[in-house]
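Re: the 302-residue chain
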Amino acid sequence: MIKFSIHTLVFYSLDMLKLMVANTGQYVDKIYLSHSKMPWSVYNKNAAKLYCTSIDSSLIDDFPFKDKIVWLEGNWSSEEDQRNHSLERARSDGMDYMIIQDADEFYQPEEFIKNLKAIEANPNYPVYRCSWSVFWKSVDYVIQVRDHQGKKGAVITTCPNFAVNTRINDVKFINRRLINRMKDAYMLPGLCLHLAWVLSDDEVLQKIQTWGHSNQFDYLKWYRQKWLAWTPQSKYIGHITRANYLGAVPFAGDLPKELKSLPYKNQSLIELGLIEKLDSWLLDIFSIMHVKFRVLIRKIII
Protein backbone atom coordinates (compact mmCIF):
# COMPACT_ATOMS: atom_id res chain seq x y z
CA MET A 1 0.00 0.00 0.00
CA ILE A 2 1.30 3.45 -0.94
CA LYS A 3 2.40 5.57 2.00
CA PHE A 4 1.91 9.33 1.81
CA SER A 5 3.37 11.86 4.23
CA ILE A 6 3.11 15.63 4.68
CA HIS A 7 6.05 17.93 5.36
CA THR A 8 5.42 21.35 6.90
CA LEU A 9 7.73 24.14 8.04
CA VAL A 10 6.92 25.50 11.51
CA PHE A 11 7.93 29.04 12.41
CA TYR A 12 4.88 31.29 12.55
CA SER A 13 1.63 31.04 14.49
CA LEU A 14 0.35 27.61 15.46
CA ASP A 15 -3.31 28.54 14.89
CA MET A 16 -3.09 28.16 11.11
CA LEU A 17 -0.89 25.08 11.46
CA LYS A 18 -3.55 23.31 13.52
CA LEU A 19 -6.18 24.05 10.88
CA MET A 20 -3.88 22.74 8.14
CA VAL A 21 -3.31 19.46 9.97
CA ALA A 22 -7.08 19.10 10.42
CA ASN A 23 -7.56 19.84 6.72
CA THR A 24 -5.58 16.93 5.24
CA GLY A 25 -4.16 14.84 8.09
CA GLN A 26 -6.69 12.05 7.62
CA TYR A 27 -5.36 11.22 4.15
CA VAL A 28 -1.70 10.55 5.03
CA ASP A 29 0.40 8.19 7.16
CA LYS A 30 2.88 10.68 8.66
CA ILE A 31 2.97 14.45 9.23
CA TYR A 32 6.47 15.89 9.58
CA LEU A 33 6.43 19.22 11.38
CA SER A 34 9.87 20.75 10.98
CA HIS A 35 10.67 23.53 13.45
CA SER A 36 13.63 25.89 13.63
CA LYS A 37 13.84 28.39 16.46
CA MET A 38 16.08 30.61 14.36
CA PRO A 39 15.25 31.96 10.89
CA TRP A 40 17.36 30.98 7.89
CA SER A 41 20.59 32.98 7.73
CA VAL A 42 21.27 32.68 4.00
CA TYR A 43 18.58 35.13 2.87
CA ASN A 44 18.88 37.77 5.59
CA LYS A 45 21.85 37.54 7.93
CA ASN A 46 20.19 39.97 10.37
CA ALA A 47 16.97 37.97 10.68
CA ALA A 48 18.27 35.93 13.61
CA LYS A 49 18.82 39.15 15.55
CA LEU A 50 15.20 40.16 14.98
CA TYR A 51 13.20 36.97 15.42
CA CYS A 52 13.29 33.60 17.09
CA THR A 53 10.41 31.35 18.13
CA SER A 54 9.43 29.88 21.46
CA ILE A 55 7.38 27.07 19.91
CA ASP A 56 8.04 23.56 21.20
CA SER A 57 6.47 20.17 20.67
CA SER A 58 4.31 20.40 23.81
CA LEU A 59 2.20 23.08 22.11
CA ILE A 60 0.83 20.58 19.60
CA ASP A 61 -0.54 18.13 22.17
CA ASP A 62 -4.12 19.05 21.28
CA PHE A 63 -3.61 18.83 17.51
CA PRO A 64 -5.75 16.43 15.52
CA PHE A 65 -4.02 13.30 14.21
CA LYS A 66 -1.42 13.63 16.94
CA ASP A 67 -0.44 9.98 16.49
CA LYS A 68 0.74 10.74 12.94
CA ILE A 69 2.84 13.80 13.82
CA VAL A 70 6.63 13.59 13.85
CA TRP A 71 8.20 16.69 15.42
CA LEU A 72 11.59 17.58 13.89
CA GLU A 73 13.70 20.17 15.70
CA GLY A 74 16.87 21.87 14.47
CA ASN A 75 18.53 24.97 13.03
CA TRP A 76 19.09 25.21 9.30
CA SER A 77 20.78 27.94 7.27
CA SER A 78 18.47 27.64 4.26
CA GLU A 79 14.98 26.53 3.30
CA GLU A 80 16.27 23.69 1.12
CA ASP A 81 18.42 22.35 3.98
CA GLN A 82 15.39 22.21 6.27
CA ARG A 83 13.19 20.56 3.67
CA ASN A 84 15.89 18.01 2.80
CA HIS A 85 16.08 17.02 6.46
CA SER A 86 12.38 16.10 6.39
CA LEU A 87 12.83 14.34 3.06
CA GLU A 88 15.55 12.08 4.49
CA ARG A 89 13.40 11.31 7.52
CA ALA A 90 10.47 10.38 5.26
CA ARG A 91 12.76 8.05 3.31
CA SER A 92 14.04 6.38 6.47
CA ASP A 93 10.44 5.89 7.66
CA GLY A 94 9.51 4.11 4.45
CA MET A 95 7.26 6.80 3.01
CA ASP A 96 6.68 6.63 -0.74
CA TYR A 97 5.78 10.29 -1.29
CA MET A 98 6.25 13.45 0.73
CA ILE A 99 3.64 16.15 0.19
CA ILE A 100 4.86 19.69 0.72
CA GLN A 101 2.02 21.45 2.49
CA ASP A 102 3.01 24.48 4.51
CA ALA A 103 0.76 25.81 7.25
CA ASP A 104 -0.99 28.29 4.95
CA GLU A 105 -1.98 25.75 2.26
CA PHE A 106 -5.43 24.17 2.21
CA TYR A 107 -7.54 21.93 -0.02
CA GLN A 108 -11.12 21.00 -0.54
CA PRO A 109 -11.26 17.24 0.29
CA GLU A 110 -12.12 16.27 -3.27
CA GLU A 111 -9.20 18.32 -4.65
CA PHE A 112 -6.67 16.70 -2.33
CA ILE A 113 -8.00 13.22 -3.06
CA LYS A 114 -7.80 13.89 -6.82
CA ASN A 115 -4.11 14.66 -6.41
CA LEU A 116 -3.43 11.49 -4.42
CA LYS A 117 -5.26 9.32 -6.96
CA ALA A 118 -3.38 10.95 -9.85
CA ILE A 119 -0.06 10.17 -8.14
CA GLU A 120 -1.14 6.57 -7.61
CA ALA A 121 -2.02 6.33 -11.30
CA ASN A 122 1.29 7.95 -12.34
CA PRO A 123 3.71 6.68 -9.70
CA ASN A 124 7.16 7.10 -11.24
CA TYR A 125 7.61 10.85 -11.56
CA PRO A 126 10.19 12.54 -9.30
CA VAL A 127 7.96 15.50 -8.46
CA TYR A 128 4.30 16.49 -8.80
CA ARG A 129 2.83 19.95 -9.20
CA CYS A 130 -0.70 21.35 -9.01
CA SER A 131 -2.54 24.62 -9.44
CA TRP A 132 -3.15 27.13 -6.67
CA SER A 133 -4.84 30.42 -5.91
CA VAL A 134 -2.91 32.79 -3.66
CA PHE A 135 -4.97 34.75 -1.15
CA TRP A 136 -4.36 38.36 -0.16
CA LYS A 137 -5.16 39.96 3.23
CA SER A 138 -8.11 37.61 3.92
CA VAL A 139 -10.01 34.72 2.34
CA ASP A 140 -12.07 37.35 0.53
CA TYR A 141 -9.38 38.24 -2.03
CA VAL A 142 -6.99 36.37 -4.34
CA ILE A 143 -4.04 37.72 -6.27
CA GLN A 144 -4.46 38.34 -9.98
CA VAL A 145 -1.28 37.79 -11.98
CA ARG A 146 -0.20 39.52 -15.16
CA ASP A 147 0.13 36.38 -17.24
CA HIS A 148 0.05 32.66 -16.57
CA GLN A 149 0.67 30.33 -19.49
CA GLY A 150 -0.80 32.87 -21.87
CA LYS A 151 -3.84 33.72 -19.74
CA LYS A 152 -3.94 37.40 -18.79
CA GLY A 153 -5.18 38.34 -15.34
CA ALA A 154 -5.27 34.75 -14.08
CA VAL A 155 -6.16 33.98 -10.46
CA ILE A 156 -5.04 30.35 -10.72
CA THR A 157 -1.34 29.66 -11.24
CA THR A 158 1.04 26.72 -10.71
CA CYS A 159 2.52 25.96 -7.32
CA PRO A 160 6.24 25.05 -7.04
CA ASN A 161 5.39 21.46 -6.12
CA PHE A 162 2.74 19.35 -4.42
CA ALA A 163 4.79 16.26 -3.63
CA VAL A 164 8.15 14.57 -4.21
CA ASN A 165 8.82 10.91 -4.83
CA THR A 166 10.92 9.74 -1.89
CA ARG A 167 11.64 6.40 -3.60
CA ILE A 168 13.90 8.15 -6.12
CA ASN A 169 17.11 8.55 -4.17
CA ASP A 170 18.66 11.40 -6.13
CA VAL A 171 15.66 13.71 -5.61
CA LYS A 172 16.51 16.63 -3.32
CA PHE A 173 15.62 20.27 -2.71
CA ILE A 174 18.14 22.64 -4.27
CA ASN A 175 16.45 26.06 -4.36
CA ARG A 176 13.99 26.76 -1.56
CA ARG A 177 10.98 24.58 -2.41
CA LEU A 178 12.21 23.49 -5.84
CA ILE A 179 13.92 20.15 -6.38
CA ASN A 180 16.70 19.17 -8.78
CA ARG A 181 14.34 17.53 -11.31
CA MET A 182 11.56 20.06 -11.81
CA LYS A 183 11.65 19.59 -15.60
CA ASP A 184 10.33 16.07 -15.05
CA ALA A 185 7.31 17.17 -13.00
CA TYR A 186 3.83 15.72 -13.46
CA MET A 187 0.87 18.11 -13.30
CA LEU A 188 -1.95 17.09 -10.95
CA PRO A 189 -5.62 18.14 -11.26
CA GLY A 190 -6.38 19.32 -7.68
CA LEU A 191 -6.39 22.99 -6.63
CA CYS A 192 -4.50 24.33 -3.60
CA LEU A 193 -5.76 27.37 -1.69
CA HIS A 194 -2.63 29.21 -0.59
CA LEU A 195 -3.23 31.69 2.24
CA ALA A 196 0.25 33.16 1.77
CA TRP A 197 -0.77 36.70 2.65
CA VAL A 198 -3.64 36.09 5.06
CA LEU A 199 -1.57 37.53 7.87
CA SER A 200 -1.54 40.33 10.39
CA ASP A 201 0.73 43.32 9.86
CA ASP A 202 3.21 41.93 12.38
CA GLU A 203 3.17 38.49 10.77
CA VAL A 204 3.80 39.96 7.32
CA LEU A 205 6.72 42.02 8.60
CA GLN A 206 8.19 38.94 10.23
CA LYS A 207 7.64 36.86 7.09
CA ILE A 208 9.28 39.23 4.64
CA GLN A 209 12.33 39.62 6.87
CA THR A 210 12.89 35.89 7.43
CA TRP A 211 11.62 33.90 4.44
CA GLY A 212 13.53 32.60 1.44
CA HIS A 213 12.91 35.72 -0.69
CA SER A 214 14.11 38.37 1.77
CA ASN A 215 17.20 39.13 -0.28
CA GLN A 216 15.28 39.59 -3.53
CA PHE A 217 13.44 42.87 -2.88
CA ASP A 218 13.28 45.97 -0.66
CA TYR A 219 10.93 44.42 1.86
CA LEU A 220 10.52 47.44 4.14
CA LYS A 221 9.56 49.71 1.26
CA TRP A 222 7.16 47.08 -0.12
CA TYR A 223 5.65 46.67 3.35
CA ARG A 224 4.65 50.34 3.54
CA GLN A 225 3.76 50.95 -0.09
CA LYS A 226 1.98 47.72 -0.98
CA TRP A 227 0.89 46.13 2.27
CA LEU A 228 0.00 48.88 4.72
CA ALA A 229 -1.32 51.26 2.06
CA TRP A 230 -3.33 48.60 0.20
CA THR A 231 -6.95 49.14 -0.81
CA PRO A 232 -9.03 47.01 -3.21
CA GLN A 233 -8.12 49.52 -5.92
CA SER A 234 -4.35 49.08 -5.44
CA LYS A 235 -2.30 47.76 -8.36
CA TYR A 236 1.05 46.05 -8.88
CA ILE A 237 1.37 44.44 -5.45
CA GLY A 238 4.09 41.90 -6.30
CA HIS A 239 6.99 41.68 -3.90
CA ILE A 240 9.92 40.62 -6.12
CA THR A 241 8.51 41.96 -9.39
CA ARG A 242 5.69 44.38 -8.62
CA ALA A 243 4.09 44.31 -12.06
CA ASN A 244 3.68 40.51 -12.04
CA TYR A 245 0.82 40.86 -9.54
CA LEU A 246 -1.80 43.15 -11.07
CA GLY A 247 -3.79 43.41 -7.85
CA ALA A 248 -6.26 41.45 -5.74
CA VAL A 249 -9.79 40.51 -6.79
CA PRO A 250 -12.70 38.93 -4.86
CA PHE A 251 -12.47 35.16 -4.41
CA ALA A 252 -15.39 33.44 -6.11
CA GLY A 253 -14.81 29.84 -5.05
CA ASP A 254 -15.66 27.66 -2.06
CA LEU A 255 -13.61 27.26 1.10
CA PRO A 256 -12.94 24.05 3.04
CA LYS A 257 -14.71 23.80 6.38
CA GLU A 258 -11.52 24.68 8.31
CA LEU A 259 -11.50 28.15 6.77
CA LYS A 260 -15.17 29.09 6.81
CA SER A 261 -14.98 30.87 10.16
CA LEU A 262 -11.41 32.11 9.91
CA PRO A 263 -11.20 35.44 11.79
CA TYR A 264 -9.90 38.56 10.10
CA LYS A 265 -6.31 39.45 10.90
CA ASN A 266 -5.17 42.63 12.64
CA GLN A 267 -4.31 44.91 9.72
CA SER A 268 -3.99 48.67 9.53
CA LEU A 269 -4.31 51.11 6.64
CA ILE A 270 -1.96 54.03 6.15
CA GLU A 271 -2.04 57.00 3.81
CA LEU A 272 1.24 57.50 1.96
CA GLY A 273 2.70 60.97 1.74
CA LEU A 274 3.30 62.64 -1.60
CA ILE A 275 6.96 61.62 -1.82
CA GLU A 276 6.19 57.99 -0.98
CA LYS A 277 3.35 57.93 -3.53
CA LEU A 278 5.71 59.27 -6.18
CA ASP A 279 8.39 56.75 -5.25
CA SER A 280 5.89 53.89 -5.39
CA TRP A 281 4.57 55.08 -8.76
CA LEU A 282 8.10 55.26 -10.21
CA LEU A 283 8.91 51.76 -8.93
CA ASP A 284 5.68 50.47 -10.48
CA ILE A 285 6.56 52.06 -13.84
CA PHE A 286 10.07 50.63 -13.72
CA SER A 287 8.68 47.18 -12.94
CA ILE A 288 6.18 47.35 -15.82
CA MET A 289 8.96 48.36 -18.22
CA HIS A 290 11.17 45.57 -16.90
CA VAL A 291 8.46 42.95 -17.48
CA LYS A 292 7.72 44.23 -21.00
CA PHE A 293 11.43 44.28 -21.83
CA ARG A 294 11.78 40.64 -20.76
CA VAL A 295 8.80 39.68 -22.94
CA LEU A 296 10.38 41.50 -25.91
CA ILE A 297 13.71 39.76 -25.40
CA ARG A 298 12.00 36.35 -25.32
CA LYS A 299 10.22 37.10 -28.60
CA ILE A 300 13.51 38.16 -30.24
CA ILE A 301 15.29 35.02 -29.02
CA ILE A 302 12.47 32.73 -30.16
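Residues 274-301 form the longest helix (28 residues).
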